[in-house]
Amino acid sequence: MNRNTVILRLVVLAGAVVVGLVLLTGLLTPRQGGGPGSAVEEARLLPETALRQRLAESGHAVESLERQGGLVLVRLQGGGELWLDGVSGREIEVPERRGEGLAPGQVRLLLQAEGYTAIHGLAWRRGAFEAEAEDAEGRRWRLRLDTYSGAVLEREAL
């Protein structure tokens, strides 16, 4: 075997060892990603004590809190219920399930029928559809839409 062949084989072997170590290290190292259910996402959610304090300050007597992803279902003493955004603690409307929800394409058509254009970011999040769109006067809006009727629940100027 000539000298060049030996050197080439050693370089290939050394490269394979390095690649193997990198892969092994990556498999053994905990992921720091921020995907659903990750530690990063969980860290963004308000703790239960903060949610209870905010609810008490607004005059609500809380019986129980139940996290459902990024949403929090609050059962009130006396039988009422509230839904909160788990990150901001703001009360949000989550429509009651009334059969099959709309498809994103149907929501887009409903928005266009209402006069909205330049519709972007249409996705289902936190119990409703959310999108950004421009009205007939050219103003940009962030919209929350009912999952079943497509009705605008919230509208925030951008």
Task: Characterise this structure.
By secondary structure, this protein is an alpha+beta fold. Among the domains are: 45-92; 104-157, Nuclear Transport Factor 2, Chain: A. It has helices at residues 3-28, 39-44, 48-57, 104-113; strands at residues 62-68, 71-76, 81-85, 91-92, 117-125, 128-134, 140-145, 152-157. The strands form 2 sheets. It has a 4-stranded antiparallel beta sheet, with helices on one face. The protein has a 4-stranded antiparallel beta sheet with strand order 5-6-7-8, with helices on one face. The longest helix has 26 residues, at 3-28. It is flat and about 85 Å long. The chain starts with a helix and ends with a strand.
How would the blueprint of this fold be written?
Elements (H helix, E strand, L loop, with lengths): L2 H26 L10 H6 L3 H10 L4 E7 L2 E6 L4 E5 L5 E2 L11 H10 L3 E9 L2 E7 L5 E6 L6 E6 L1
Antiparallel strand pairs: 1-2, 2-3, 3-4, 5-6, 6-7, 7-8
| Helix/strand order, N-terminal first | HHHEEEEHEEEE
CATH class of the domain at 104-157: Alpha Beta
CATH architecture of the domain at 104-157: Roll
The N- and C-terminal alpha carbons lie at a distance of 71 Å
Low-confidence stretches: 30-41
Share of β-strand residues: 25-35%
Main sheet strand line-up = 1-2-3-4
Estimate the mean pLDDT confidence: 80
Task: Tell me the overall shape.
Answer: flat
Instruction: State the CATH topology of the domain at 104-157.
Output: Nuclear Transport Factor 2, Chain: A
User: How many helical elements?
Assistant: 4
Classify the secondary structure makeup into a structural class: alpha+beta
Radius of gyration: 25 Å
